[in-house]
From TrEMBL:
Residues 41-154, 167-318, 441-535 form the Plastocyanin-like domain. One of its GO terms (molecular function) is copper ion binding. This is Laccase. Its cofactor is Cu cation. It comes from the Eukaryota. CDD domains: CuRO_1_LCC_plant, CuRO_2_LCC_plant.
């Protein structure tokens, strides 16, 4: 389902370690130049959808400030928590080479920054450039605590495409009228799923389709004949989203901060956590054209917001009050539209795709319904079949510890995690169509804080398999500290005898949408010592 609650996030910790007797200690990345940023996590009042409310932001900005850097730069970001809530900042897509302490997920690499406290993130952008973003990584605060991280190539290094006339950041988001922290507490206590967002937003603006929002619209002014670079970021909490511009083609040239071979399409789909660069040429008659964000919902019986957010792609010379031409989005459950875009993604620089594999991992991903164990079931067991909803990998739901996993591992503190996460399901069956624990039978998962330990340099292939225990659906899976080659994907159950893998030019990504009722195969080399978190990038 698109809506999962904090208590059953899909989390898997991978720990990569190096034997010091074999591998010399690598030199700490120092960075070409150092850039300093000062983040203050604060509450501010916003007026949207006919209502006024307090939200948590950074530097009283929604979305938050853009962090700019160049490849190889060192970033130092001092975060002061002036909000009443615990907080951390995750630098989504940054590999954190030898700086995993600063990755940001709470209770994985650090304890939260408590109200009134500060924490300084320090890391070097080793070998990376492109479109990233940052967001809160405690509870649901990332619904409003997010912003772009733009990393340019080194000086003198050109783009592998024609230099655009201008570039713009376009962040897709979701907005709730209710206080997001209170909403999270209510949902967790209920055992069910969260309500859909009250609105979608483009750079924090819902657009004219929503009440009291005719003037709450983001706009890009464009010059006829010029080409524009749009840095698309899905910072949404739950919703996978389509994006399109009326009467204009989008040419994808980057996905998850890695260049791709150009692919032109009418629309794109980004799951939460995914980023993309598209080139758009203003080649239509002078006018005002809608940029639209709408839902992609692959699960069954899922509530969702069906009103699109609208922004304007407006030509210089267009009448200010002219009507905008509507953008055509796919239907909310158009799986073929999603597959068509994924089929078109091909990596540009793929010389180091692992051809041989040392470790094969097989991970099932799915929803669970745990038995109600509450003395007040009407309040606490509002999931399917009067149970509590959960999610799992290999039928194990992750339990957040009270000490960060990285600290416990580094200091040798026992009792906070175990290193026995299974590399394959406990049993194999027809994962998509014939789950043996289909409701109303036993649909419960096991609980644990389990990690998988990999030796440094291990060449890993990981199969991510959707399951139909409750419902099949598309799963946006994010791997912290790494990018990976998406060497294959398909419908149904993964079969190594028939699966077609692309080892020539697969896209290199950090977040992959595992197809609804299907599988994805990814490959990477475990060459980043420390803790790595794999998570489903929805709440």
């Amino acid at each position: 389902m698109a809506n999962l609650v904090t208590s059953f996030m899909l989390w898997l910790c991978l720990i990569s370690y190096a034997y010091t007797t074999i591998h010399a200690a690598p030199e700490w990345p120092r960075g070409r130049s150092t850039r300093f940023y000062d983040f203050k996590i604060q509450t501010m009042t916003v007026n949207k959808l006919c209502n006024s409310k307090q939200i948590v932001t950074v530097n009283n900005m929604f979305p938050g400030p853009v962090v700019y850097a160049q490849q190889g730069d060192r970033l130092i970001v001092k975060v002061s928590n002036e909000s009443p809530y615990n907080a951390t900042i995750h630098w989504h897509g940054v590999r954190q080479i030898l700086s995993c302490w600063f990755d940001g997920p709470s209770y994985i690499t650090q304890c939260p920054i408590q109200p009134g406290q500060t924490f300084t993130y320090e890391f070097t952008l080793v070998g990376q450039k492109g479109t990233f973003f940052w967001h809160a990584h405690v509870s649901w605060l990332r619904a409003t605590v997010y912003g772009a991280l733009v990393v340019y190539p080194k000086p003198g290094v050109p783009y592998p495409f024609k230099y655009p006339y201008e570039e713009h950041i376009v962040i897709l988001g979701e907005y709730w009228l209710q206080d997001i922290v209170q909403l999270e507490r209510q949902v967790v206590a209920s055992g069910g799923g969260p309500p859909p967002a009250n609105a979608y937003t483009i750079n924090g603006h819902p657009g004219p389709n929503y009440n009291c929002s005719a003037n709450d619209v983001y706009k890009i002014n464009v010059v006829p004949g010029k080409t524009y670079l749009l840095r698309l970021i899905n910072a949404g909490l739950n919703m996978e989203s389509f994006f399109a511009i009326a009467n204009h083609k989008l040419t994808i040239v980057e996905a998850d901060a890695e260049y791709t071979k150009p692919f032109t399409t009418d629309r794109v789909m980004l799951g939460p956590g995914q980023t993309m660069i598209v080139l758009v040429t203003a080649d239509q008659t002078i006018g005002k054209y809608s940029m639209a964000m709408g839902p992609y919902v692959s699960g069954q019986n899922v509530q969702f917001q069906n009103i699109s957010a609208i922004a304007y792609f407006q030509y210089v010379g267009a009448m200010p009050n002219s009507l905008s031409l509507p953008a055509r989005l796919p239907s909310f459950n158009d799986n073929l539209a999603v597959k068509t875009v994924m089929d078109g993604l091909r990596g540009l620089n793929t010389s180091d795709v692992p051809k041989e594999i040392d470790t094969n991992l097989f991970l099932t991903i799915g929803m669970n319904v745990n038995k109600c164990r509450s003395k007040t079931p009407q309040q606490n067991c509002q999931g399917l079949n009067n149970g509590t909803m959960a999610a799992s990998m290999n039928n194990i739901s992750f339990i957040k510890p009270t000490v960060s996993v990285l600290e416990a591992y580094y200091k040798g503190i026992d009792g906070f995690f175990t290193d026995n996460f299974p590399g394959a399901p406990f049993r194999f069956y027809d994962f998509v169509n014939g789950a043996p624990n289909n409701a109303p039978n036993d649909t419960s998962s096991m609980n644990g804080t389990r990690v998988k330990v990999l030796e440094y340099g291990t060449r890993v292939q990981m199969i991510l398999q959707d399951t139909g225990t409750v419902t099949t659906e598309n799963h946006p899976i994010h791997l912290h500290g790494y990018s990976f080659y998406v060497v294959g994907y398909g419908a149904g159950n993964y079969n190594p005898q028939t699966a077609s893998l692309n080892l020539v030019d697969p896209p290199y990504m950090n977040t992959i949408g595992v197809p609804v009722g299907g599988w994805a195969a990814i490959r990477f080399v475990a060459d980043n010592p420390g803790k790595t978190l794999m998570s489903k990038h929805v709440t």
